[in-house]
């Protein structure tokens, strides 16, 4: 019996030690976040927000402010709608993030499905035209008489040859035939 009593007291002592270790580990994990934030603030690293509340974002150093490129915006419509850019052209610095908007109006009393196809002139600039977001990435469904503003977010690679001063971004908007027949089956 004394042997089992000794085991029991050893087990209780071990359980207390493990409980203390578990509590210390929890406390260490709980305090790690504020300690980490304080260390980063003192060292000046990984600052997301400055003390005045403004974001710690610096200017984009990849923007080539020494030159401007004129991007002419064009549109072609093959279908039952009006389709056009909201502005004729935009001047951009290579590397600068730009948003332009195209507008489409379905002038039919029915729903239509469409897709936009981009083209560039001269064609060699397409390798330097980088779209981040574009309505041309997916098919569009326009309800009867619906009007929609559709953005294109892009930048021009600063490696664009220096002799290119102007280029044209054109979209052709096509109706996708046959989707209504397959949807009603």
Automatic annotation (TrEMBL):
The keyword Transmembrane helix is annotated on this UniProt entry: yes
SUPFAM superfamilies according to UniProt: Ctag/Cox11 (SSF110111)
Membrane keyword on record: yes
UniProt keyword annotations, A-Z: Copper, Membrane, Signal-anchor, Transmembrane, Transmembrane helix
Bilayer-spanning residue ranges: 18-36
Subcellular location: Cell inner membrane
Database matches in Gene3D superfamilies: Ctag/Cox11 (2.60.370.10)
Name of the protein this chain belongs to: Cytochrome c oxidase assembly protein CtaG
Family: Belongs to the COX11/CtaG family.
GO (cellular component) term, any one: plasma membrane
Membrane topology: Single-pass type II membrane protein
PANTHER family in the cross-refs: CYTOCHROME C OXIDASE ASSEMBLY PROTEIN COX11, MITOCHONDRIAL-RELATED (PTHR21320:SF3), CYTOCHROME C OXIDASE ASSEMBLY PROTEIN COX11-RELATED (PTHR21320)
Domain of life: Bacteria
GO molecular function: copper ion binding
Described purpose of this protein according to its UniProt entry: Exerts its effect at some terminal stage of cytochrome c oxidase synthesis, probably by being involved in the insertion of the copper B into subunit I.
